[in-house]
Design a protein that fits this description.
The chain contains 14 helices and 22 strands. By secondary structure, the chain is an alpha/beta fold.
């Protein structure tokens, strides 16, 4: 039986159907499937909603074809079933029997429009905390030795090699300083990313994020430009304001006694941050530059060099591949969004210390701001959404395994304002392993309901991410991660399972990457 995109047919009641889609280069080639029917006959329309899903390991994966018109447009579909149910000569054949967990070819499902095609994760550089949760040592009581505090650099190397093999797009890394408690132990992302790129082939490395107040913007510009050249464009620039007073006060302007960087003057701190980012991007993007601002005069006035007065500067070397820049969207204020778009900076929503999840309010404000600049875009354009996740065979198992990781995250970030405004009593309880569970912080069920955590078997995550891509048709990239407390072994296991059982439902065949300028120059001439 054939279903053509612009026709409707009746389908007899059947189970364990095989769905074949052509052309195979673009759509699904063959999967086990079932069609939900509530009578002996039902109508299936290619241009409408298809109540269909996949079988994997005997489990039903609903909702993969939430919108049939995207998957089936101008396509012929062959529905085949058990010969006992359909007349001989119909071309039907039995569906393959389940033989345990098996990989299904989901390549290109629902990719008529640009949708989620790239996945990454965030590794903030935590040590292997042997015990996690509210009833384990308080954050301020953790103090690791030098070997433990260096171990995240080796973990990052292992994760990068694994992710490169599994087909992930980006390993995002977080910059932080002085964390003897062992939670965020990567002080220089461009340096680490350059090393990791030498150990991998295609994986990209995201600066998630460079803490701008602790840098001189020209030093960061030089470091990023070198990383861009040496990795042939595989490092992604990202900027953030930071939130740890210990690192901001010690390395940033407040450490020099400059009140403009003090934590009690947020407007002045934002002014400095914005000027630093402007200097950074101008240096990266312009052939030469001269800056006159409140905090920086570059080059300084009255500087003589080799017999002439210095009037401008040139960054050496300049990046050769990309000056694309990303920034987390936290408050989504008009000032913040306008600054980002005025400087061609893209947005990261959730993930890391932020609560995570898809925010339609933020996405619509972002879309409106793009429209003000003459860009008519799909919802989700130029954004990355970040989620925490835990995969298991059942939702109960996933919740049980994810709960202590969430609790460790709350112990770390609750006092920093990332679990809402906490009372003094809540903070006291959170710092006491015997009472932390009574502090009244959000549970994993709350996090799931809020959409910041994706928890359960693969079909649950596929369904949730399918809903995300339906709501945000301009979204092409998602970051899924284990929060800051997760053990490295858990991170690796979860990334492997996500790649095998969730990513194939979204990834489409990628065109060969364009050769870099270096590779083009080194390639032999045609016919040589």
């Amino acid at each position: 039986m054939h279903l053509v995109a612009d026709r409707r047919i009746d389908v007899a009641l059947a189970n364990d159907l095989v769905l074949r889609l052509d052309p195979g280069d673009r759509l699904l080639t063959e999967v086990s499937a079932t069609f939900t029917v509530d009578a002996a006959r039902t109508e299936l329309a290619a241009a409408g909603m298809v109540a269909a899903g996949l079988w994997s390991d005997g489990r039903y994966l609903p909702g993969l074809w939430r919108r049939a018109d995207r998957a089936l447009a101008a396509t012929t579909v062959v529905l085949a079933a058990d010969p006992a149910r359909f007349p001989a000569g119909s071309g039907a054949g039995p569906a393959p029997a389940s033989t345990g967990r098996r990989s299904l070819d989901y390549t290109g499902v629902g990719k008529g429009d640009p949708m989620i095609t790239r996945f990454g994760t965030l590794y903030v550089g935590q040590v292997d905390h042997e015990h996690l949760g509210f009833d384990t040592p308080a954050v301020n009581d953790r103090w690791y030795d030098d070997d433990h505090l260096a171990s995240p650099l080796h973990v990052a190397e292992d994760l990068a090699v694994q992710m490169d093999d599994l087909g992930y797009d980006t390993l995002w890394l977080a910059e932080h300083h002085f964390q003897r408690e062992g939670y965020e132990c990567i002080p220089n992302i461009p340096l680490l990313a350059t090393h990791l790129a030498a150990r991998t082939e295609r994986l990209r490395f995201g600066c998630g994020f460079n803490i701008i107040p602790v840098w001189h913007p020209l030093r960061l510009a030089e470091d990023y430009a070198m990383a861009d050249i040496l990795t042939r464009g595989r490092v992604r620039l990202g900027v953030g304001r930071g939130y740890h007073s210990r690192e901001l006060a010690s390395l940033g302007p407040a450490g020099t006694g400059d009140p403009a960087g003090a934590a009690d003057d947020p407007d002045a701190a934002r002014d400095r941050f914005e000027e630093q980012v402007e200097v950074l991007l101008t240096a990266l993007r312009q052939p030469s530059f001269r800056h006159r601002g409140r905090h920086y005069r570059l080059p300084p006035d009255g500087i003589e060099y080799r017999g002439y007065e210095l009037e401008d500067l040139t960054l050496v070397p300049k990046p050769r591949h990309s000056t694309e820049c990303w920034q987390p969207i936290v408050s989504a204020s008009d000032r913040g969004l306008d600054f980002m778009l005025d400087h061609d900076i893209k947005g990261f929503v959730g993930g890391g210390a932020a609560s995570g999840g898809a925010s339609e309010t933020v996405a619509r404000r972002w879309q409106a701001k793009l429209a003000e600049r003459g860009r008519d875009t799909e919802l989700g354009t130029d954004l990355v959404f970040g989620f925490s996740f835990y995969l298991a065979d059942s939702e109960a198992e996933a919740k049980a395994a994810g709960r202590p990781i969430l609790e460790e995250y709350q112990k770390m970030f609750g006092p920093l304002g990332f679990a809402g405004r906490l009372t003094d009593d809540q903070l006291d309880r959170l710092a006491d392993p015997a009472r932390a569970a009574t502090a009244g912080l959000p549970t994993i069920d709350d996090a799931i309901a809020a959409g910041s955590w994706l928890v359960g078997p693969p079909e649950v995550l596929i369904e949730a991410l399918s809903a995300v891509q339906e709501t945000y048709p301009g979204l092409e990239e998602v970051m899924v991660a284990q929060p800051v407390g997760a053990r490295p072994e858990t991170i690796g296991e979860q990334l492997e399972r996500f790649a095998a059982e969730v990513m194939p439902a979204f990834a489409r065949r990628q065109a060969p990457a364009e050769p870099s300028p270096d590779e083009q120059a080194a390639a032999p001439a045609a016919g040589a």
